[in-house]
Amino acid sequence: MRGLDPPPEQVVITSRDYDEYLAALGLDEPALLRARVLDCPGGASDFARTVRERGGRAVSADPLYAGTPDEVAAAVGAALERGLGRAVAALRRGGAGWSAGLPEYVERRRRSALRFLADYARDRAAGGSDYVAAALPALPFPDGAFDLAVVPNLLFAYADLFDLDWHAAAVRELVRVAAEVRVHPLTGVDGLPYPRLGELRRALAATGVGTTVRAGTLVCRVRRSAPGPSTTAAPPRSGATGGGAGR
Ligand SMILES: C[S@@+](CC[C@H](N)C(=O)[O-])C[C@H]1O[C@@H](n2cnc3c(N)ncnc32)[C@H](O)[C@@H]1O
């Protein structure tokens, strides 16, 4: 993963937990557990581990996973410290809403990261492939390998690092490997809406990728009838995760 532009280190590593993923991405658990799921970027989240623990199938992808368990633990530990620092600074700036929730927020992220780190070490020791070192916009998976790709907190969050072409290439790559792609949030780290969303959606539509916005999440699929970037991408499977399955 060396030599990537921009370097992945410029992107914060976070550890949102399984319940946060479900709520943010509007996922219905029974449908989720039937699907083949890609979490990209997985970061230090326990989402995929929890999917597997509950009987589902999930793989995480992130450039972070090029590291050994010790290297990843050090990077995640440092990121958690910085994240706590930012939360405390927000509290000091007068974010009264934080005061009640801050200890719980910190504890949830810490628990999620610890579960991830234990699972990452287990996977590496077993020579497994639950955590794949990969960086958008190029993923090492065959066309249609997944029913659902969840993309939390990377696209749109770093508009200063990743330009419009990068975003379009990333979504095209994600719909190549997954029948349905859900990207959340549609805002930057400053909380402001991604300013080029309309332009991006038009560019994707022009290459056969249909998008809809549902409750702050961008849902993307290759259109069946239109010529897409990859003609071999699996068609969306009704009922796997989309349509009426979201909550
Ligand atoms: C804010 S974290 C999100 C982690 C997790 N999804 C969550 O919501 O807590 C962003 C992650 O993106 C990863 N990343 C950076 N560049 C990337 C790229 N080009 N492709 C995929 N992931 C990347 C970072 O290593 C980091 O773990």
Throw out a few tags for this protein:
single chain; 247 residues; Rossmann fold; seven-stranded mixed β-sheet; disordered C terminus; binds S-adenosylmethionine
Overview of the molecule:
It is a single chain. The protein is built from seven helices and seven strands. Residues 226-247 have low confidence and may be disordered. Helix 3 links the parallel strand 1 (36-39) and strand 2 (57-61). 40% of the residues lie in helices and 15% in strands. The chain has a single domain (8-66, 128-245), classed as Rossmann fold. The protein has helices at residues 18-25, 29-34, 47-53, 69-92, 96-125, 164-177, 197-206, and strands spanning 36-39, 57-61, 131-132, 146-152, 178-184, 209-214, 217-222. The chain has 247 residues and is α/β, with parallel strands linked by helices. A seven-stranded mixed beta sheet has the order 3-2-1-4-5-7-6, sandwiched between helices. The protein is globular. Helix 6 (164-177) crosses helix 7 (197-206).
